[in-house]
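Summary of Year 1 activities. Much of the first year was spent building the evaluation harness for sequence design. The harness presents a backbone, in tokenized form, and records the residue chosen at every position. We chose the following record to illustrate the format because it has been used consistently in internal testing since the harness was completed.
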């Protein structure tokens, strides 16, 4: 066990611990952290890190930056004043915290706390866990299953899979092998997550049986399960793999005959085509098998025309898979999550309501909101009856008081994956509020309303954080669709990322378009016009609009 400050790196269980409690961390970020922790105090160049984690594979260096950002979020580290990971521009990284080694005896308590925490149920997912267990019972009867767990980033897909795998027990036991798809590798290394799963099967508790089956039925794949990186002849093996996909399917089925087998593939939106072909083949084969493929993906991530979407729809239509879309947590589950994060059963008054509204029930957002409140000094530790507890030191901030930095970076990365035109559309929509009509987007951008509405419709079909909510009838008899940001945090990031001059121009155009739409009835929308003029810094026109609104209100108030 590697120990640094309040953290422990449990290499045996592939887990990062904070005060003995496990922290969700995907395999590749964990591998990056492990390499840095095992080489403290010295410069680790980008090339060394890439070569150590992705040998013989070209991976864009940007992937490292993404993982380091994720690690900083988990560790609560600051790039400007690093306590753990120091960035040396254009060179690499250095782990600067003091690292100590703990013996097996020393770690008994930490591992016990780890096991206890991991055994605890996740919050708000009881129904989903029961549905997964029902699929396992069907699988145990010899009917193969393919289950897709879908949802937006941070909704808890991996946490659900972790909890499900930990609860697999008598009377049904199963072999579980997991593979992680990685952005930047999909399309460059065939079967990347499959190789990771195969390696786990060949080196795990049932490794001898797995190797025996592969040796008999798919010898080329056995080599892939036992060696990694430099030992692979990638070109030769790629050609062999393409011809022996059926052999691998048959081998998996044979393994499942001895003991139910669950193949878990995470972040399938980054998967290569070959991995998707394997899943398709496993789903369509007719022979009975105690085999399950459990895959997670975010429908709105990955390339725009990713074949995963076509595969998912085709298997659903043929009833060859089950789709499990994760909904946001309810308020009760948010409260339970907050109790776990803060380590206390009594929460400051109003915290659950504030975190639920601010996060929209996204577990990752809930944690980010709490960390932001702590960093801002709004939540502080106080001595109560001899124990330290988190308490509210000042009023909860206004709901538009800013986005937590770490969360803002994550949302920014998601937005950057969109085309420039899509980014401009969403930024124009953010000038309104959480809800925005297509006509306002068209006005802000100076574009045709019909064409803009079609573009907004296309975005709403592909993005998880924008939803088409209906149509409004305009004063001239025409109609315009309106849309809603599923998370107010996305709207804030989109609004703040625009240059002030561009925001001002958009606000003025929307106000002027309101005046045109409500010609001779401007007073009825004067307040909205004033808000846009004020946001643009045109206080004179804002005052005129407010005066018009006041004059309209006077007769209704009975003032002569």
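For this record, the design step produced the sequence shown next.
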């Amino acid at each position: 066990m590697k120990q640094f400050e309040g953290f422990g790196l449990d290499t045996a269980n592939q887990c990062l611990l904070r005060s003995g409690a496990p922290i969700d961390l995907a395999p590749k970020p964990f591998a990056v952290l492990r390499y840095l922790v095992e080489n403290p105090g010295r410069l680790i160049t980008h090339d060394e890190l890439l070569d150590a984690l992705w040998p013989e594979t070209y991976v864009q260096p940007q992937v490292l930056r993404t993982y380091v950002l994720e690690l900083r979020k988990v560790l609560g580290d600051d790039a400007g004043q690093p306590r753990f990971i120091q960035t040396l521009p254009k060179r690499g990284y250095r782990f600067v915290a003091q690292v100590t080694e703990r013996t097996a005896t020393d770690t008994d308590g930490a591992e016990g706390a780890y096991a206890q925490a991991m055994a605890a149920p996740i919050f708000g997912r009881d129904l989903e866990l029961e549905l997964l267990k029902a699929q396992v019972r069907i699988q145990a009867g010899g009917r193969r299953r393919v289950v897709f767990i879908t949802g937006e980033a941070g909704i808890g897909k991996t946490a659900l899979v972790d909890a499900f795998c930990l609860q697999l027990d008598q009377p049904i036991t199963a072999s579980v092998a997991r593979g992680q798809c990685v952005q930047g590798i999909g399309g460059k290394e065939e079967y990347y997550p499959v190789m990771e799963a195969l390696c786990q099967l060949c080196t795990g508790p049932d490794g001898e049986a797995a190797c025996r089956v592969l040796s008999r039925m798919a010898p080329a794949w056995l080599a892939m399960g036992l060696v990694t990186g430099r030992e692979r002849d990638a070109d030769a093996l790629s050609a062999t793999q393409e011809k022996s996909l059926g052999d691998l399917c048959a081998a998996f089925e044979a393994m499942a005959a001895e003991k139910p087998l669950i193949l878990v593939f995470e972040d399938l939106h980054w998967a290569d085509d070959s991995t998707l072909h394997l899943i398709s083949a496993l789903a369509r084969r007719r022979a009975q098998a105690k085999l399950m493929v459990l895959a997670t993906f975010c429908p709105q991530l990955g390339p725009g025309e990713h074949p995963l979407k076509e595969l998912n729809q085709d298997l659903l239509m043929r009833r060859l898979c089950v789709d499990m879309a994760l909904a946001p947590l309810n308020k009760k589950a948010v409260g339970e999550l907050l109790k776990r994060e803060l380590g206390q059963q009594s929460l400051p008054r109003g915290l659950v309501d504030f975190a639920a509204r601010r996060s929209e029930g996204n577990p990752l957002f809930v944690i980010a909101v709490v960390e932001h409140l702590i960093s801002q000094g709004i939540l502080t530790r106080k001595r109560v009856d001899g124990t330290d507890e988190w308490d509210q030191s000042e009023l909860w901030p206004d709901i538009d008081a800013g986005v937590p930095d770490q969360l803002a970076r994550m949302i920014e990365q998601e937005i950057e994956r969109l085309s420039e035109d899509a980014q401009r559309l969403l930024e124009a929509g953010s000038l309104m509020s959480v809800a925005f009509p297509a006509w306002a987007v068209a006005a802000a951008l100076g574009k045709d309303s019909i064409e803009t509405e079609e573009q907004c419709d296309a975005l709403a079909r592909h993005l998880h954080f924008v939803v088409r909510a209906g149509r409004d009838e305009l004063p001239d008899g025409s109609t315009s669709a309106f849309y809603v940001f599923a998370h107010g945090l996305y709207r804030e990031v989109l609004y703040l990322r625009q240059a002030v001059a561009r925001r001002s121009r958009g606000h003025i155009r929307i106000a002027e378009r309101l005046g045109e739409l409500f010609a001779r009835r401007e007073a009825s929308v004067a307040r909205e016009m004033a808000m846009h003029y004020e946001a643009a810094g045109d206080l004179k026109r804002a005052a005129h609009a407010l005066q018009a609104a006041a004059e309209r209100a006077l007769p209704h108030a009975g003032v002569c």
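The two ends are 80 Å apart (CA to CA). Quantitative recovery figures across the full test set are reported in Table 2.
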